[in-house]
């Protein structure tokens, strides 16, 4: 299998850009990553950073259930519906094809009627929890490009956790919590994706949006909202993907947030409909999933156009003299320069960061124009970085700095540099302090600065921004304009 060239997401901003873009006829190694398009003047090539097209990733996964014997049908069982305990015509028998509900039915092509679904045994051992882990493994790093959607056929679970792994299942982190009552289930305040901002994007939330309303049979899906999170950077219709790619390029945490090797759906409590579980008829309670959607692309570090599936394994088809499943290192004898991931910047053609043969001397290449002092690198391929920038190409930011056409120092954030005494962090560049406090992080009671000290009569004056902060504020407002202008 080979993914075609054009990238779904990039295409959405290319269409915005194409009217005014003009490309040089050749770009050396950038020629690799291009796709044909059409303008009023005829066919033309669009150049871009190298990455495989986004695709339906459920075709390439392995699924594991825990406990392994939790699928219904052995021995055969008859189920009642959640809504009506007298309607008991759902029969599960793993030995009969028409009555079996194996895990594969979560990933088959839907569109058939009735739908096909995996089903668990019923909650026979109540009050012991009916807990099931569904683990999806790719054995390959994947970058998510669209919402994860799970469709339940017999009520959505009352408690569930979506977890992810970035290291092939060795360690797991929660991605999102789902419950009818977040406080009760996980002692977390209920939130929705609409509460998330650019600055809290990495926060893990518990949502009640997808657990209520079992009676409304159309509400069958549970989502992990990727696109709403992208929209925080790319705008509501994802028109400004350039802005998103710029951020992904320079903020490793953000890039990693959307990257997985495995997903785990932890089903903790099935739909029960009523407030009380009907202990005398537990055949009403079980999990049934008809579909799981995971859309993404192979992570190839911007060193491949395509990803192949061969012998049950996904592998990037590495260019730029790189190798490894994710093109994560230079080929043997191509280590004249330290390996580095390709870059989306400058938008749109990106920077290839090719590996160089050992025999050939260093070249000028492609220092990041915003992060480095000059466009030339030194004898071993390092660029001279401006303050706050790092990496061979000066395209990454040191801790404490944020990418904004170069690395701008970060005054505050929601992690280590929290504003104190109730101050609010604005765009990571200043704390907006309550009237009684001042200082970079609102750490100083204002009265300390006043004649007479605290207890004096001058407290509560209006707060004036130091001129430097105003400049920084302006810079951060002007920042995104560049990315729009470039189109
Ligand atoms: C699954 O297997 C375990 C251990 O063999 C057993 O204790 C349990 O009852 C089985 N569960 C079902 C639903 O068959
Ligand atoms: C559940 O209730 C229905 C209707 O009363 C009955 O037909 C069915 O046998 C019951 N199931 C169990 C396991 O008691
Ligand atoms: C599911 O996974 C969690 C950790 O992610 C583990 O604690 C639990 O034992 C697993 N199995 C079940 C049946 O929940
Ligand atoms: C995972 O992929 C690596 C190569 O990338 C391979 O060596 C390994 O056998 C694979 N593991 C499984 C469980 O398929
Ligand atoms: C190039 O810069 C790197 C990092 O500053 C340094 O380690 C290396 O020695 C330099 N090489 C030359 C030839 O100046
Ligand atoms: C051996 C090898 O793959 N060489 C390639 C190194 O990269 C340049 C530019 O991408 C190619 O032209 C070479 O073929
Ligand atoms: Ca199905």
UniProtKB/TrEMBL annotation:
Entry-linked InterPro entries: EGF, EGF_extracell, Laminin/Netrin_ECM, Laminin_N, LE_dom
One protein family per Pfam: Laminin_N
Boundaries of every Laminin EGF-like domain copy: 365-409
Signal peptide: 1-19
Annotated Laminin N-terminal domain residues: 46-297
Cellular localization per UniProt: Cell membrane
Keywords attached to this entry: Cell membrane, Developmental protein, Differentiation, Disulfide bond, EGF-like domain, Glycoprotein, GPI-anchor, Laminin EGF-like domain, Lipoprotein, Membrane, Neurogenesis, Repeat, Signal, Transmembrane, Transmembrane helix
Lipoprotein among keywords: yes
Transmembrane segments: 463-484
GO cellular component: plasma membrane; side of membrane
Domain EGF-like: 408-443
SS bonds (residue pairs): 365-377, 385-394, 433-442
One Gene Ontology biological process: axonogenesis
Membrane topology category: Lipid-anchor; GPI-anchor
Keyword Glycoprotein included in the entry's annotation: yes
Primary residence: membrane
Protein task: Involved in controlling patterning and neuronal circuit formation at the laminar, cellular, subcellular and synaptic levels. Promotes neurite outgrowth of both axons and dendrites.
Protein name: Netrin-G1
Organism annotation: Cyprinus carpio
